[in-house]
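Inverse folding, one chain.
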């Protein structure tokens, strides 16, 4: 994704700042923000509503706090996102995923870093224990590979254990993956996933409801799980202990009417107590990877039955010839992109207009050139030729 001029409008960014200012008020969360916008027509109107009217919806403490520093901090969060090339998506934006509106407390603003078009693709959530067994990590990675080959988007939470393995499996076969974060979209957590974080930012999509710079906090991760469940067509639990956070994702999925699958595990394995319990309670058992993929990925069963494995589908709105792992871009396209770069640096959308390519294709070409040492990435998602 490109820099501040790439997506959105000044109106959307102002709305996002207003929504974030409401969300930051004491004892106010997404559900109350939704109630305030419903009551007053917009976040901007809610911020200037009469004290008594506002307090009737959100409480007197929140009404008094409206004049504090929260609005300025919200505006700085939006500006920081735009400087770093992170798409800022408030409720009213057409890019806001419709599936999130089925939540009782949809996130007022999303921060998206990467290929936003992946949100329009069929997706499967793969979740499980952070302290997964070697078996659990292997199953998650294989599941990510099979789904990636079938053209489904693998959605997970970038955590240690099952989550990370599922992301890795999808990327290994050139598939697509979305990571829903409990931090800002510019904050790597856990630190050991720095390389994986970077790969998903370049080739997949990072999703967060938290402004850039938001560090990891225990209460953020259960909150992000509702987004993970809402974005996916179904949820697979590979391993989950008795109190695993993956079970929170399952609760949200069931509330949304999503199918839940669970991988059976050894009865004496602590990390499988929760996932095995799901099977007792009616979750669908995942006992064969290919059968599962054939059941959940539209149009995949016929090819699977014939023993064929196809390349991942090109994402909607993308150029089918965009670079992928093991598939270099045409030299003529790379040359055109190089010639379009200014010595002082150019924004991605500027280069895209000059060469007549989609923005995502242009960014993919620039990323390839950067990896080859021919292009330098500057602050604000600007690029120039390497010295």
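Residues assigned per position:
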């Amino acid at each position: 994704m490109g820099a501040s001029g790439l997506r959105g409008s000044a109106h959307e960014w102002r709305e996002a700042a207003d929504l974030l200012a409401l969300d930051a008020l004491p004892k106010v969360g997404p559900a109350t923000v939704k109630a305030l916008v419903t009551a007053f027509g917009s976040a901007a109107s809610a911020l200037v509503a009469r004290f008594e009217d506002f307090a009737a919806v959100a409480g007197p403490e929140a009404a008094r706090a409206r004049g504090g520093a929260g609005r300025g901090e919200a505006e700085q969060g939006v500006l920081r996102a735009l400087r770093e090339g992170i798409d800022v998506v408030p409720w009213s934006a057409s890019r806001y995923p419709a599936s999130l509106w089925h939540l009782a407390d949809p996130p007022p603003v999303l921060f998206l870093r990467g290929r936003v078009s992946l949100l329009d693709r069929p997706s499967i959530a793969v979740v499980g224990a952070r302290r997964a067994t070697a078996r659990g990590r292997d199953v998650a990675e294989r599941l990510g590979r099979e789904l990636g080959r079938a053209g489904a988007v693998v959605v997970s939470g970038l955590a240690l254990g099952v989550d990370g393995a599922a992301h890795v499996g999808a990327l290994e076969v050139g598939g697509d993956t979305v990571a829903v974060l409990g931090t800002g979209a510019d904050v790597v957590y856990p630190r050991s996933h720095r390389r994986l974080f970077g790969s998903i930012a370049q080739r997949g999509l990072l999703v967060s409801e938290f402004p850039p710079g938001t560090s990891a906090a225990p209460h953020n991760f259960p909150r992000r799980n509702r987004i993970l469940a809402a974005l996916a067509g179904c949820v697979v639990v590979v391993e989950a202990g008795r109190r695993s956070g993956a079970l929170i994702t399952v609760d949200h999925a069931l509330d949304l009417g999503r199918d839940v699958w669970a991988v059976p595990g050894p009865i004496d394995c602590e990390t499988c107590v929760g996932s095995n319990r799901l099977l007792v309670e009616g979750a669908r058992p995942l006992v064969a990877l290919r059968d599962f993929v054939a059941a959940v990925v539209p149009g995949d069963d016929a090819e699977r039955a014939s023993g064929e494995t196809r390349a991942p589908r090109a994402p909607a709105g993308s150029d089918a010839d965009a670079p992928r792992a093991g598939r270099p871009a045409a030299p003529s396209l790379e040359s055109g992109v190089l010639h379009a770069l200014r010595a002082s640096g150019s924004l991605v959308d500027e280069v895209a207009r000059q060469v007549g390519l989609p923005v995502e294709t242009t960014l993919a070409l620039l990323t390839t050139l950067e990896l080859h040492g021919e292009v330098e990435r500057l602050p604000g998602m600007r690029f120039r030729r390497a010295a």
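The CA atoms of residues 161 and 203 lie 21 Å apart. The chain has 17 helices and twelve strands.
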